[in-house]
Amino acid sequence: MNLTVSGHTCNVPSELLSWTIIVAELLPRHERRVLCHLEPCGALDVDQAMKAAKSAFGHWSKMSGMERARIMIEAAHIIESRREEIAEMEVVNNGKSITEARLDVDSGRLCIEYYAGLASTLAGQHVQLPGGSFAYTRREPLGVCVGIGAWNYPFQIAAWKSAPALACGNSMVFKPSPVTPVTAVMLAEIYAKAGAPEGLFNVVQGSQDTGSLLCHHPDVAKVSFTGSVPTGKKIMEMASRGVKPVTLELGGKSPLLIFQDSDLENAVRGALMANFLSQGQVCSNGTRVFVQKDILPEFVEEVVKRTQAIEIGDPLLESTRMGALVSKPHLEKVLSFVDQAKKEGATVLCGGELFTPSDPKLKGGYYMTPCVLGDCTDDMTCVKEEIFGPVMSVLSFETEEEVLYRANNTTMGLAAGVFTRDVRRAHRVVENLKAGSCFINNYNITPVEVPFGGFKMSGTVLHVDREPSVAGRSLFLLTSFQSCLQHYRVI
Ligand SMILES: NC(=O)c1ccc[n+]([C@@H]2O[C@H](COP(=O)([O-])OP(=O)(O)OC[C@H]3O[C@@H](n4cnc5c(N)ncnc54)[C@H](O)[C@@H]3O)[C@@H](O)[C@H]2O)c1
């Protein structure tokens, strides 16, 4: 296994670490305790990782799907046995609560299991031609695929990107976000331990310079990217120079539609799920909450009450529902969105302020109180732009036609939700919502068996797939899905 990480020290006991930040030499502006020192990888490191991945590809791509599946299943077993250790490291890595981190580890494991199951089913076609002739098609892996990840689901993204790529016979060089560099390295260790050939899944560390070296490398067959829309555009441009395919899983500004006939208790819980999971740092969050006029006062009262009751603090405690934001600059950015919303006429119904936990070891952490904004209008910055923090914007609407137009009036299209007891309306509405994942009477449920990806500027994954390549985790995806699950994690 070729881990091009210099001097990483992942085994520091977690109680010695700050929950709120991971400090690498890449981020000298941070002043908190140091988890590990990582050197950004330059051209030589990237080249070395590519060579190792290329060599592994030669071997891995010749193995049968069953043989690849066996190694992936073993990796899944190791993840299961190290669940708590990985989850705790993810908490330190990112700041999210331990209960959520465990679910992220589970999701990564399930994804690897799911694609291990698909590995042996990939097959070509036999085509009969005139005169007894025939042709056949073969499913070919692409080669060395690059994965570039965001910081909000570090372990899960590394697993979601690598699982389909490896199942189909590709190898991967993965670059995590420099803000959360640690748990992708753990995944690399796990694949190696499971029996993957040396160099099959490599981790390179660094920020945009390293990412750019990867995208321009002549040996790269495909780039799979998760991150913001502006970076996604750059990735697409860089990959286009080498005529490389890309998968883009980008940002969102998703609408949540709450009709007056909905089960209010369920709708309130759904709105919390759609806004405050992972400190609001979730791409699919439904941050534009449209509530039908007649139930607006009742909804707002209940949502504010529940938001104020969310337990903020040490993310390693079982009782904590909201940990720290990922970094100081990000916290400042989120708070500045709240300030801007006030200036533009929104009312802060609760939260939106710095929070200092009572535990002295958490002082100086990047905590804020979850915020609900009222009196919002469609033209406000908080309603138009992705904040990527715990800030819910509440808007009122009168008719279905009106709310559909307003919900779709955005350049993004990652997810959307509808709460109603009218089953015909529910399906009519999701059919007309221009979003990749539409939830009915729930939100942010992402089982690995169903596709995940965006319309419009939220990404390309929905349009490209059916190839045995690396494509996020939506390998055979053609359409969006409508989820009717009723269970969800309680905030
Ligand atoms: N659609 C999805 O599945 C999904 C999932 C998680 C996060 N996201 C989105 O990710 C964003 C937050 O993550 P972020 O702040 O890490 O995003 P980001 O775009 O700033 O960075 C993402 C990754 O790209 C790298 N990068 C930055 N500039 C680059 C360049 N010029 N060339 C190559 N690589 C470069 C970063 O180092 C990082 O690894 C949000 O917009 C969120 O909605 C989307």
UniProtKB/TrEMBL annotation:
Pathway it works in: Amine and polyamine biosynthesis; carnitine biosynthesis
Summary of subunit composition and partner proteins: Homotetramer.
Source organism of this protein record: Seriola dumerili
Catalytic residues (positions): 249
Regions that span the bilayer: none
Subcellular location: Cytoplasm, Cytosol
Aldehyde dehydrogenase domain boundaries: 30-460
InterPro entries: Ald_DH/histidinol_DH, Ald_DH_C, Ald_DH_CS_CYS, Ald_DH_CS_GLU, Ald_DH_N, Aldehyde_DH_dom
Stated family: Belongs to the aldehyde dehydrogenase family.
Catalytic reactions of this protein: 4-(trimethylamino)butanal + NAD(+) + H2O = 4-(trimethylamino)butanoate + NADH + 2 H(+); an aldehyde + NAD(+) + H2O = a carboxylate + NADH + 2 H(+)
Function of the protein: Converts gamma-trimethylaminobutyraldehyde into gamma-butyrobetaine with high efficiency (in vitro). Can catalyze the irreversible oxidation of a broad range of aldehydes to the corresponding acids in an NAD-dependent reaction, but with low efficiency.
GO cellular component, one term: cytosol
Entry keyword set: Cytoplasm, NAD, Oxidoreductase
Primary location group: cytoplasm
Alphabetical list of CDD domains matching this protein: ALDH_F9_TMBADH (cd07090)
Protein name listed in UniProt: Aldehyde dehydrogenase 9 family, member A1b
A molecular function (GO) term: aldehyde dehydrogenase (NAD+) activity
Top-rank taxon: Eukaryota
